[in-house]
Amino acid sequence: VVKERDALLEQVKELREKVAQLEEKMKSAEVTPIVEEEREVDPAGLYANFSRADLVKTVLDWQGSFVEVSSSQFRNAIAQIQLLNP
Q1: pLDDT at 31 (0 to 100)
Q2: What is the spatial distance between Cα 35 and Cα 48, in angstroms, rounded to a whole number?
């Protein structure tokens, strides 16, 4: 009975080591696609070192600029229509 117990404990130890190895493998497999996706989106690596707050700030700045440009273009279109149709 003692030999069986020791054999089973050894099997459990081996299986736990195997599980740990597989978990490590899984972690590296999850990171790789993310890195590849980031390279597709940002090939120059400009935003690779940005923090989440920096990215949010950049997006909000761009969003504000977009609204300003759109408003300006809309006002220009209205002014052109008013010139053509007094």
Answers
A1: 58
A2: 10
Domain ranges within the chain, ordered by starting residue: 1-48, 50-86
**CA distance readout (Å), 6 to 2, 16, 34, 84:** 6, 15, 43, 95
**Count of alpha carbons within 13 angstroms of residue 68, beta-carbon side:** 6
The pTM of this model reads 0.36
Whole-number Cα distances in Å, 57 to 34, 53, 67: 22, 6, 15
How many helices and strands in the chain, by DSSP H and E? 2, 0
Query: Are the CB atoms for 48 and 42 separated by under 8 Å?
Result: yes
Residue 16 contacts residue 24 (beta carbons within 8 Å): no
Q: Cβ distance 41 to 33 under 8 Å?
A: no
